[in-house]
Amino acid sequence: MQVRRFAPALAVSMMATLAPALVSAPATASPTPRAVPTAAYAQQKVTWQKCRADLPPSLECATVKAPLDYRRPRGAQLDIAISRIAATDPAKRRGVLLINPGGPGVWGLDMPAYLHGAFPASVLERYDLIGFDPRGVGSSAPITCGLSPEELDGERPYKPETFARHVALTRGIADKCRDKYGEDTLRQFTTRNTARDMEVIRAALGERKLNFLGYSYGTYLGAVYAQMFPRRVDRFVLDSAVDPAGAWHGSFKIWAPEAERAFKRWTEWTAARSATYGLGDTPAAVSRTFWDIVARADREPVLLGGTRYSGTQLRAALRTTFFKPRLGAEWVVNLKKAAAGEPTPDLPAPYPWDDNATSMFWTVVCGDTPWSKDPESYRRDAVRDAVRYPLYGDHASNIAPCAFWGRTAEPATEIDNDVPALILQNEWDSQTPLSNAHGLRRALEGSRMVTVDEGEGHGVYGTLVSDCAEQVANTYLTTGRLPAKDVVCAANPAQQQQRKGTKVPVPVRGPLAP
């Protein structure tokens, strides 16, 4: 899937009004957070109105109030922004379908409008499509730590000569967030509290149970909600899965070994088409072509478009393309031309990280689960993984701001239940690999999993990658019937995935999006 990219719309005025409450949250002894919202939150009235001008006109918008700290439900509050496109057939309506497009740290208020162009009438007539900006994001009290462009860049490959600078840089990110908001406030912006907010949204909308569609990070959010509120789960579709056992450090370290597996497949595919691409007629020759270019670029950066890239930068930039062999071959052909001094286009633009998205990403992944606080442990892992996984090991294992974050507010959520859910997964997903989906499938014992054989890209439902997988998901959402056992679906032919029409590929977003 070619992920569409959209710039988030931030509600600065929300931050201005809420900031005083956020930074003044008391740091007294911590009672146990409430498992369910109080009556005041559950019974609040939701008033739908026209959305702001930069959102699609088909949407209605509203806010629901949630406590900043669920240990203190009568304390500071947040306004959680939600949106809606109502079910097209009131007679067939069966509830709401809450949507999360990924993250953490990205907005979802506009998602119903995109899904409305991607989903079949049988789904649209049954559900109000509900989008929301999770707490700390977009229009829901956005966290912005004041990060510099260098701090917004998440690619920090390990090198002995730069490690001390990266330690200082990542420590600085943690310090900026803590200095602006205070540790106790930052600890309230977690996946568990976002799951509690989902429960507030469900209750405020008057729904007995919740239907949910979560992509990427949204699969973890959905799994946490199911663990915390199993009796409120109705039909949950979890697309492109995060393994809860790996959240969060393991979720990013796994990119290195999975990149090696994809690179091997790419060399085999490309060697079989040597007459087309001219990169080598054996997998070893194709591999050598790439690594020779990388070595040359590390000596003298190569020019693509108007940008010069070192070999280290090329490895990071091309990691995801190797999961789509044709795309990978096309770009390495461009690299070969660039190394020979020929003019070439620039590499695809990376995901457009801004202060809010990056600040909330680290706030969530550092606040959900414990990370090592020993910088030397990251150095050791990066040195080891650079040898084990030469394509990306030095990137995936290097130090992160979580090494300097405060303690977590609650223990990490252990996912172990028999709540029914449908897991959708491409075989070749660069951001949430197939092994992640197997981990989520084991944790959700009542789930069923659809694997798209040879499916490439991040996201399945609504992305044109597999008609078979779409049909399974549509059946589940319209009838509630899960497959009797796990299913393997074929991927659509490439030309079918690229067809034009009314369907709009779903924009899976965030750091887990390529």
Keywords:
40% helix; globular; 14% strand; 514 residues; two-stranded antiparallel ribbon
Based on secondary structure, the structural category is: alpha/beta
Largest sheet: 10 strands, mixed
| Number of helices, counting only DSSP H or I runs of 4 residues or more | 21
What order do the strands of the largest sheet run in, or round the barrel if closed?
1-2-3-5-4-6-7-10-11-12
Indicate the percent of residues in helices.
25-40%
What is the C-alpha radius of gyration, as a whole number of Å? 23 Å
Quick one: how many beta strands? 12
**Low-pLDDT sequence parts:** 1-30, 499-504
Mean pLDDT: 90
Q: End-to-end span in angstroms?
A: 10 Å
Strand content: 5-15%
Q: What is the general shape?
A: globular
Can you give a write-up of this model?
The protein has 514 residues and is an alpha/beta fold. The protein is 40% helix and 14% strand. The chain contains 21 helices and twelve strands. The chain has helices spanning 12-23, 39-42, 111-116, 121-124, 149-152, 163-181, 183-186, 191-204, 217-228, 249-253, 255-271, 274-277, 283-299, 311-318, 325-339, 355-368, 375-388, 393-396, 434-443, 467-479, 494-497, and strands at residues 49-50, 60-67, 77-85, 95-100, 127-132, 210-215, 233-239, 302-304, 307-309, 422-428, 448-456, 487-490. A ten-stranded mixed β-sheet has the order 1-2-3-5-4-6-7-10-11-12, with helices on both faces. Strands 8-9 form a two-stranded antiparallel ribbon. Helix 20 links the parallel strand 11 and strand 12 (487-490). Helix 11 (255-271) crosses helix 13. The longest helix has 19 residues, at 163-181. It is globular. It starts with 11 loop residues before the first helix and ends in a 17-residue tail after the last helix. Residues 1-30 and 499-504 have low confidence and may be disordered.
